[in-house]
Each structure stands twice: as structure tokens, then as C-alpha cells.
Amino acid sequence: MQQQDFTTTIELDATPQEVFDAVNNVSGWWSANIDGETAKLGSEFSYHYQDVHRCRIKITEMEPGETVVWHVLDNYFKFTQDSSEWIDTDIIFKISAKNGKTQLKFTHQGLVPSYECYQVCHSAWTHYIHDSLKGLILTGEGNPTPRENIGTAASTDQRYDTKSICHRLSIAAPVEKVYQAITQQDGLAGWWTPDTVAKPEVGSILRFGFGPEYFKEMAVTELRPYSIVRWNCIKAYEDWVGTTLTFELEPHPKGCTLFFHHDGWEAYTPEFASCTHDWGLFFRSLKSLCEKGKGFPYPEFDKV
Q1: Residue 175 and residue 252: Cα distance in Å, rounded?
Q2: Neighbouring C-alpha atoms within 13 Å toward the C-beta of 291
Q3: How far apart are CA 146 and CA 128, in angstroms?
Q4: Residues ≥6 apart with Cβ < 8 Å to 277
Q5: pTM for the full predicted model
Q6: Following DSSP, what letter does each residue of 53-74 receive, concatenated?
């Protein structure tokens, strides 16, 4: 049986030229970490996502309002045994009129199920085409990977000579989707508590309500898109105040791995024991939200 290239299609209330222009605005929908010309036939550009994925691409075909074709010249994956998967594959954007709308058919020719990276790439391309590129075309605003600014980020290896709650779990969803679930207000409300007020900005204060008399406030101290989220607890039960909560994400061939540590506990208190158990239930909720589209936030998290 012949293996199938990855392909996906969207229909849009936009002109073919508008779709064509958006496709060529690669930093507007895929990643701000793009170096080189992306809208000129024969030009080359490079993409990188931290130390996890790098590739170099050449634009080999470009027909205004109709076709864009990229050829992958070089590639590196950190999370696959064959780090060169993608090399000599073609990424094709076909634009056509259909039913009074414009159809965009995206095909990554050569990205096949036998590739170790296939599931990760399938999920990631689906996100970037159906959410980010579509958003850019229809609203003028995509959801690309933000530009990395490692120099201004806080240390990612902050540990304490105290007690820590730790959890590690695999989630069958791309890091992009999980990152949104732990940073965006609707994502956090979908797995932790519906009474959530949140902005994905360093320095912002997140508020989480658990019934009429109890809430937690977290200061966002670090955000590295699709990699690290760190909060400092500033209001809650006494045992929580001053603790640090860190979510670390890493791509995996079947989705991503989340490593969570809640550091800074002074002692193994009853609250520590209770929170260790509750975090496990909430991460079951997070996993369900990312994989199935429905979580089990407070107060239902311990009733499923």
C-alpha cells in the first residue's frame, strides 16, 4: 500500500491573491524565527525552534494567486533518531477557487507515516495551517512562534533547598497546543478552574478562584514559547506563598512531554501531600483537554 503524504485543506472567504500573500508572509503565521527572503522565487530562508528543530528551505515555484512550493535543503530534529528527516521533501501550497471561496490545499510531499517525526509534524502543521495561517488571512493576525529572546529570560534551572512536588506526563498533542493550554485564559479555565483571569505576559498576575472564599494569584516570571512557563505564587494558603511553579515542555514523536515541578515548600505538610495528589488529577484534566478537547476542571476534577 502506497504511503500518503501529509495534506490538509482549508476554505476561506478571501481572494486567491490574499491567500497567496499570507502564505508568503511566513513569519506572520509559522515563526518569527525566520531568516531570509520568503516571498521571492529562488530565494532561501532558514527556520529554527530553539535547539529542537532547524531547517533551510528554498522557494522553487511561485505562481501568484495559485502556487507556492518550498524544497527542504537541510534539516535537523533533536527528538528523532534520524535527525535529517524532511531533507529533500517539498512543501506545497495550492490555491484555487471553489464554491465561491478560495481553497488552500497544503501538502508536505515526502512527510509520510513511516517518519518518526510524522505525528509531531502532523499536529504542528495542522495547528499552523488551520489556526495560525487561517487567522492571518481572515483577521490579519496569525499565531506564529514568537521570536526567541533567550538573553532576557530568567534562569530555567532555579532550584531550592526545600521540598518539591514533581509530575511528568506524556500528552498526545503538539507542544504548541499544550503551551496554549497552560498560558491562555480559556486553556487554563478548561483544565484547572473556570474562574480564571490570565494574560500570557511576563509580569502579569494570574487569578484562579476555587469557590467563593479561596483563590490563588500567580505572577508570571518566565515565558519561553512552547518550552517553559514559570509562575511565582503571591497569594494563596500560607504554604503556597513564595513557591514557584514551572511547566517544561519538550517535543516527543507522539506529542510532547510535560515536566512540572512546584518548588519551594518548606516541609512535608498535609497541604503538600494534598496538593501532590490534586496536581495529578489536574494534569489528567490537562491531558484530556489537549487530547480530547474536554478537561475536568474544578470542581469536577476529582469526580471522574
Answers
A1: 9
A2: 15
A3: 13
A4: none
A5: 0.69
A6: EEEEEEEEEEETTTEEEEEEEE
Residue 113 grid cell: 507515516
**Whether the Cβ atoms of residue 179 and residue 249 lie closer than 8 Å to each other:** yes
H or E element in which residue 179 lies: helix 175-181
Domains and CATH numbers, the chain: 6-139 (3.30.530.20), 161-292 (3.30.530.20)
- How does the average pLDDT of the chain come out, rounded? 92
Give first-to-last CA distance, the chain, whole Å.
Answer: 41
**235 and 218 in contact (C-beta within 8 Å)?**
no
Distance of alpha carbon 92 from the chain centroid: 23
Taking the CA atoms of 9, 10, 16 and 22 in sequence, report the sign of the dihedral they define: negative
Are 32 and 144 in contact by the 8 Å Cβ rule? The answer is yes
Residue 81, number of CB atoms within 10 A of its CB: 8
How far is Cα 64 from Cα 70, in angstroms, rounded to an integer?
14
Burial class (CB in 10 A: 0-12, 13-18, 19+), 240: buried
Reading the block at residue 176, the C-alpha cell is: 504548541
Question: What digits encode the pLDDT tens for the residues 258-295?
Answer: 999 999 999 998 999 999 999 999 999 999 999 999 99
